[in-house]
Specification:
The protein has 104 residues and is α+β, with helices and mostly antiparallel strands. The protein has one domain. The protein has five helices and six strands. It has a six-stranded mixed β-sheet. The N and C termini lie far apart (35 Å). It binds zinc ion (2 copies). The site of one zinc ion has 5 residues, from helix 3.
């Protein structure tokens, strides 16, 4: 489905954007923030910040052929890809994870 308006945007890490790593982690924050990440924990560097880009959420969902439950991920939820089973696991964010969105 590519009939969305390109209105909702998200952040994609440079690893995924440049095809260096697969897309493995999608977050839908409490206020419609979307994150499309490789899932590694090395995103605190300036380089990672500088190479992350803003993408259209709908286009990202379409181009990575994500299953419906991921495309319709509710707010405050996280979808993580199990690379062994290729199954997307969807879970609710913890209170701590939600709080991170309000940090700064
Ligand atoms: Zn990354
Ligand atoms: Zn779009």
């Amino acid at each position: 489905m590519n009939d969305h308006k390109h209105e909702v945007h998200g952040i994609m890490c440079g690893h995924v954007y440049k095809n260096e790593r697969p897309l493995k982690l999608i977050e839908h924050g409490p206020e419609d923030q979307w994150h499309f990440m490789c899932g590694a924990s090395d995103h605190d560097t300036q380089e990672a910040v500088d190479t992350a880009i803003v993408v259209c959420k709908g286009c990202a969902m379409t181009s990575y052929l994500l299953p419906r439950k991921v495309q319709q991920l509710p707010a405050r939820h996280i979808a993580e890809l199990n690379v062994n089973t290729e199954f997307w696991n969807v879970r609710e964010m913890t209170a701590e994870e939600v709080a991170e969105y309000y940090d700064d």
